[in-house]
Each structure stands twice: as C-alpha cells, then as structure tokens.
Amino acid sequence: MIKGSYALVVMTGDCLIGVRDPYGLRPLCLGLLADGYVLASESCALDVIGAEFVRDVEPGEIIIINKTGLESRKVQAGNRRASCIFEYIYFARSDSVIDGTSVYEARKSAGKILAQEHPVEADMVIAVPDTSIPAAMGYAEASGIPFGEGLVKNRYVGRTFIQPEQELRETSVRLKLNPVRCNVSGKRIVMIDDSIVRGTTGRQIVSMLRMAGAREVHLRISSPPVVHCCHFGIDTPDREQLIGAVKTIEQIRVAIGADSLGYLSIEGLVRSTGRRAEHLCLACFQGEYPMEVPMVGNKKVFESK
Question: Could you confirm whether domain 88-280 is CATH 3.40.50.2020?
Fold first, then answer.
C-alpha cells in the first residue's frame, strides 16, 4: 500500500518480518546463524555477528521468520528493479555487498574510470575520508600518481551534508577534517570526493588545503553532478540549493576554488557497479524517477494510500 522506498524489519512477540519495497530502492539481506535467521540492511552487519550471508531480499518480497522456519512471499513487484545508486556512492559501508555488487569494488572502479575520464598532472592523490578512499585508491592506481593521506577525519563527528543549517554544516566540516600539512605542503594535489551537493563543504576543504600549503588542488568527483532532488531517502535540499542544478561545471570550480574540476560520467558510474542502468535509480542525476512522484502545492512528496 505504501509508495516510495523502504526496507523494514519488524518484530512481534514470536515473529521476525522483513519487507523490501517493490523497486528494491533500499537494500535488505538475509543471514543465517547456528540457531536461526537474521535480517540486516547491509551485509557488513552479518559479518559483525558472525552470520552467514544467505541472499538479498528481493524487491517486493516479505520474509517471515518464526519458530517453524522461514517463509517468503512475493507480494508485489515494481515496473523494474531500481536500486539506489547513492548506496554505492556514499550511503553503504564499503565492506558491504548489495545485490551482488561489492561496494568497495564499485567505488574503486569508479576511481579508475574517473582517472581515465579526467586525468591531470599532480604529485599526490588524496581522499575526503571515509567513503572516497576506495575511489582515490582506484584513481591513484589508474593514473600512477601516489596515494597519500592528506586529510585526517575526526571519528567523533558524523555526516555534514545532512546538518539542517549552513552554519552548522560549515562548523562540522572544520571539526570533522584537518589537513596533514607535511603531506600536502608544496604539492599538486588531486582530491577525490564522492559527490557535491551544495558545494560549501568542498569549498572549505579546498581552502584548508591551500592554507596547509598545497600548490594546486584538483578536485575529482566519483559521481556525476547532482541536479535533481531525491524523494526516496536522500535528504537533498530544494533544487535551487543544488549547486549542480544552478551552475555550470566551470562555475562550480570557481565557486569551490579548485584549479580544475572533473565529474565521473553517468555511463562511467553505471559501469563501475557492474549493473545495468535500467536496474538502478539514477534520478538525482537524470530526473527520471522509477515511479510517479505526487505533487502537493509546488513540491513533490509521497503520500500513503
């Protein structure tokens, strides 16, 4: 009955139930312990508790686990499978496997393809930790430029782009990341990040690297420009706040203060996952949503019926 993206794990007194939305936008997987089954949104959670990965829950499937065992019901299927591409770009942990695709390998492959699409002469490749590290390693491997640690992450600060106010986001960036001055000073740096949403975080990081003595900062993004709002779980701002929707790539480069800027193409991103484009939701890059998005006032939202 519910339209949208969801993965549910529901517990009753004697039953464990897992539900994945008909398009498979959100991940959900099934694991096995010695004394029963478990459900998790990512396969890495199974590793933590020593469970064996069994399989991904299929789109539109309901898994019912009780004392008699496991029952599967395929209740509804969408018009197509449409796994959220941002799970591979940013959301999922790199040690997870989603719908048969290693997140780590997808990110590293994205970095290799990015190096082919946007080469540059530089002294060191660095990552914006943590999600960009595999992509940076892939870029370094493909380009032959050494990979190094240019930014250190404060492990006690969470994600910054979902902070509600700009001032909070900017403060969080300063608390979250600090440049390794001895590594970046005097060098031409290729900085790999997974995405640009508003552009404010990238501008601050580039500024920090320059203050730490970086001679050049070349920004490479292991995903295409985000130009459309997501209505399926990514807390993107209104479209006019998406820098990719209102500025050209050159204007973004100037706004961020990088010496050069290159985005991974949509084709390159799809190729990095090893999946078919029609099995992925790419709406934030293309504006083509896997299901109708209802309008309320001048904004698109979902309503349950």
Answer: yes
Quick one: fold of 7-82? Glutamine Phosphoribosylpyrophosphate, subunit 1, domain 1 (3.60.20)
Predicted confidence (pLDDT) per residue in 130-186, tens digit: 899 999 999 999 999 999 999 999 877 655 554 555 555 556 777 889 999 999 999
CA distance 200 to 169: 8
Please, what is the end-to-end C-alpha distance for the chain in angstroms? 6
Q: Decide: 220 and 191 in contact? Cβ < 8 Å.
A: yes
Q: What are phi and psi of 94, to 5 degrees?
A: -70, -20
Sequence letter at residue 63? I
Asked if 8 and 18 count as a contact pair (C-beta separation under 8 A), the reply is: yes
What is the DSSP secondary-structure string of 2-33? --S--EEEEE-SS-EEEEE-TT--S--EEEEE
Other CB atoms within 10 A of residue 107 CB = 28
**Pair of tokens at residue 266:** 């949509």
pTM: 0.89
